[in-house]
Known about the structure:
Elements: E1 8-14, E2 17-23, H1 25-33, H2 61-68, H3 73-83, E3 85-87, H4 90-111, E4 112-114, E5 120-121, H5 124-132, H6 148-155, E6 162-163, E7 165-172, H7 174-184, E8 189-195, E9 201-208, H8 212-223, E10 228-234, E11 237-240
Antiparallel strand pairs: 1-2, 1-3, 4-5, 4-6, 7-9, 7-10, 8-9, 10-11
Helix pairs in contact: 1-3, 7-8
Amino acid sequence: MISLDEAVTARLESHGERFEVLVDPDAALAIKRGEFEGDLEDVIAAEDVFEDASSGDRPAENALEEVFGTTDPLEVIPEVIREGEIQITADQRREMQEQKRRQLINQITRNAVNPQMDDAPHPPERIESALEETDFRVDPMEPVESQVDDALDALRPVIPIRFDTVTVAVQLPPDYAGSGQAKVREFGDLEREEWQSDGSWVGVLQFPAGMQNDFYDLVNEVSSGEAETQIIKDEDDLDTR
């Protein structure tokens, strides 16, 4: 379950009765869209249905039976969310908007590069600053994924930006290959790998271009800075870092 501070109220008025439940805001939106795949008990603040959640008053059991055909809260709660309205306070809306804004900046940073700077990643501070110069406003009631394209459209007149992936070959020396390759291979999509006769490991990975600095930090960490990396632009053209 979640805390009361994290929950919003979903309210349904039907048959002259009011029913309220306390639920995580993102989960409520997912349930409303039919996209929720988690465990309901993990995203509610109370396994209960209220007439007034703020006072803790509960509806009569016969009212639940009449409207929902059951008194089981775990069956009623999704129906209240799907058929009712999600109530959020001004503070909750601001908090949700800020959380979504951070998620949006993070997602853009992970995927975006600067095509005017040899496809170098944009720092998150640059994305945040540029976004503040636009008219784009994050919708706290919409998934971050559905807002990325609109945010990019707003950013393009402000900074050169595009989404891209990068393919990087990395060679870990024998002393670090055993433990290091296990961490490196999980960073992106491992396209191919090869163990060399001297015990070194070579892997080729593809991942979002904005994560290049994170990748190099990881490679340096697992190899004490002794690894070699190359950005692969095509089969015949290698750009050595």
